[in-house]
């Protein structure tokens, strides 16, 4: 504000940096009652759903793991068991340790075979080959299917009577037919190949997105320094995709721990296909129903699953703090 010759204050009309007169500051618009109601519903609604569908069952499972209850009687039949269910699971429950071994094999197979296969697909498709979009769609198609449907598809492929593989070998319906899901020594590997069919496509999409975001000048600089394609990828491109690498590691671990649909469709998670998630369902819903034992296995699976999640969150928050 400045004063006129008459002494009366006049509005300051000095030009701004853009050469226009300054405008009065806008008032801060406050939320209306409708806005507050909508915002409250948007926050409280998802929180309530998460509490009901996730946190309440989780807390209930932890509580049931310290009880004896077959789920048939009323709540008055629930008895306290202390740590007995955990002691039984770790020392006297025959399928538990084979299931742990199978989960470890599942994890190693996905990490050593399925994930590198997905990276290979991504690198090849990033080279702008012909029909790249069609190949991407083909490889990504299994990701859009549920594991239950994938199990049904691979049952048709592996069937001993009229399956695709045995038919191609000309041994379908004979005593020479390969019993992929009945043979205890090979059914786990047959299921892992089916799981790889889906996991490789998932990893491919993630790394393909990461490769598209790499600065081309990094590759050009490496090429000028005489680096080969493999050296450029291993020493320049792959480290530059560190966030993608972290996400893929976490996803691979979680996929290995929550694998259930596929083995349950194949043979109910028995006969060499025991997994921790299948044991949980067998004890909660199967013939030998024991909610205490099933809940104890679920809690063990939850604790193991939290390790990679906490690792990922710690790295993410630490990176945000450093930036």
TrEMBL record:
GO cellular component: plasma membrane
Region (Disordered) residue spans: 1-25
Descriptive protein name: Multiple sugar transport system permease protein/raffinose/stachyose/melibiose transport system permease protein
Native species: Spelaeicoccus albus
UniProt KW keywords: Cell membrane, Membrane, Sugar transport, Transmembrane, Transmembrane helix, Transport
InterPro entries reported in the protein's UniProt record: MetI-like, MetI-like_sf, UgpAE/MalFG_permease
CDD domains registered for this protein in UniProt: TM_PBP2 (cd06261)
GO biological processes: transmembrane transport
Family designation: Belongs to the binding-protein-dependent transport system permease family.
């Amino acid at each position: 504000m400045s004063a006129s010759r008459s002494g009366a204050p006049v509005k300051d009309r000095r030009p701004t940096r853009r050469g226009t007169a300054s405008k009065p500051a806008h008032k801060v618009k406050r939320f209306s009652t409708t806005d507050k109601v909508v915002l409250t519903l948007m926050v409280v609604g998802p929180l309530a759903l998460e509490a009901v569908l996730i946190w309440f069952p989780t807390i209930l499972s932890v509580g049931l793991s310290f009880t004896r209850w077959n789920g048939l009687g009323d709540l008055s039949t629930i008895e306290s068991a202390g740590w007995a269910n955990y002691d039984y699971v770790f020392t006297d429950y025959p399928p538990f340790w084979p299931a742990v071994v199978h989960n470890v094999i599942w994890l190693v197979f996905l990490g050593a075979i399925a994930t590198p296969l997905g990276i290979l697909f991504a690198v090849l498709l990033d080279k702008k080959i012909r029909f790249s979009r069609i190949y991407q769609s083909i490889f990504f198609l299994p990701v859009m299917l549920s594991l239950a449907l994938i199990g049904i598809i691979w049952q048709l492929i592996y069937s001993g009577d009229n399956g695709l593989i045995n038919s191609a070998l000309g041994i379908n319906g004979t005593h020479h037919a390969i019993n992929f899901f009945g043979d205890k020594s090979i059914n786990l590997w047959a299921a892992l190949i089916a799981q790889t069919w889906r996991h490789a496509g998932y990893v491919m999409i993630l790394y393909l997105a990461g490769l598209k975001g790499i600065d081309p000048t990094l590759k050009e600089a490496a090429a000028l320094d005489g680096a080969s394609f493999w050296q450029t990828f291993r020493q320049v491109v792959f480290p530059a995709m560190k966030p993608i690498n972290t996400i893929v590691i976490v996803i691979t671990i979680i996929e290995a721990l929550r694998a259930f649909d596929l083995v349950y469709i194949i043979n109910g998670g028995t006969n060499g296909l025991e997994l921790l998630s299948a044991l949980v369902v067998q004890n909660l819903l199967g013939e030998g129903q024991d909610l205490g034992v099933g809940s104890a296995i679920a809690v063990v699976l939850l604790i193991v699953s939290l390790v990679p999640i906490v690792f990922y969150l710690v790295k993410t928050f630490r990176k945000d703090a450093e930036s």
